[in-house]
Amino acid sequence: MPTKITDAYAHFGLPRFGSLDQLLRYMDKHQIEQAVAVLGPRVPDFSIIMEAASSFPDRVRCVGIPFGETKEQRVEAVKLQLDAGAIGIRLEPREANDMPEILDLIGKRGRWAYGIGSCLSQQLAKQYLDWLAQYPDARLAAPHFMYADFSRNDPERAGGSIEQLMRHERFYGILVRNLGMVGSLYPHTAYKAWMEYVIELCGSDRLMWGSEYPVLFWRNENADAAVAMFRELLGVCDDREWSQIAGANASEQFFDGAAPQSTEQVLPEWVEQQFERNRTVPFFPKGLEIPVELYGRILEGYIQSSYFAEGRSMLEYILKPWIEQMDSGHGEIGGSMGKWNIRH
């Protein structure tokens, strides 16, 4: 692995995506020096942004999310998170289309838009190009921008505004293993054409690596394997170029210079009223739906376990009670289901 790793796309936020302390322990285990921690969708744990921004500004930088049932509430939430010290805001394609006011807020402060699917369509790419032109201090990071079975001859996915955006000096692609890759066969040859296109347009100096912690655990993966997979896909890169992608680029872009000022914020009552705290967590992928309260105990136990320390998967840790029971010769696997109370 590279000598210095910066994770450009991790998640945090209780209860679904874990605590700041759990994120830091994950980073320590995998020798990740710095990470951009992004609130997960529909998890408005705004307090964790204030905690990270005030306590670990040299190690963790934060990205918030739009949240709220009304446009006014989503604008209020974005302002609150930027004031709390977030370096930017994560935007789904629909949010970027429907809420230009949020892009304006990000742009006026010279912060980052984390544009999910920003290369998904020519229309969305054009919108981001116009935004970058309007706000010369703003920057765009693009997690989840990988495509399988890509063709340069497809006018909806190549050339035009998409190519212009990917060539833009303030566009940064983040290589994150998406859900589609989980179903593709190793070594993920369906993504080779897209990776070649990305390297041609962005070069090694505008690409970054992201783990999507802790979602990679839900897919029965770990950070070492996620890094190694992209190193293989980017076989055309030499070691210096790969070190840029795996660490140096994100460290320079997100951590060089002072962190945004963080001020204590009073959270509106409507945030907690709309917070869906009882959502389940999908595992392996979508094979199990685990109640979030149980998942919280599993994540904490796993991170403290020898399984995590040895680089073994969360699936092995979850199956531990059944494996031990079978090894001891006591009963069938189904006999210990009550220990975890997992709901299918």
What does this structure look like?
This protein has helices spanning 20-29, 46-55, 71-84, 93-98, 100-108, 122-134, 160-167, 179-183, 192-202, 215-218, 223-233, 239-255, 269-274, 292-304, 306-309, 314-328, 337-340; strands at 5-12, 32-39, 60-64, 88-91, 112-115, 139-142, 171-175, 207-209, 281-283, 288-290. α3 runs parallel beside α5. β3 (60-64), α3 and β4 (88-91) form a beta-alpha-beta unit. It folds into two domains: 5-255, Metal-dependent hydrolases (TIM Barrel, Alpha-Beta Barrel); 278-340, no CATH class. The chain has 17 helices and ten strands. The protein is globular, with a radius of gyration of 20 Å. With 344 residues, it is an alpha/beta fold.
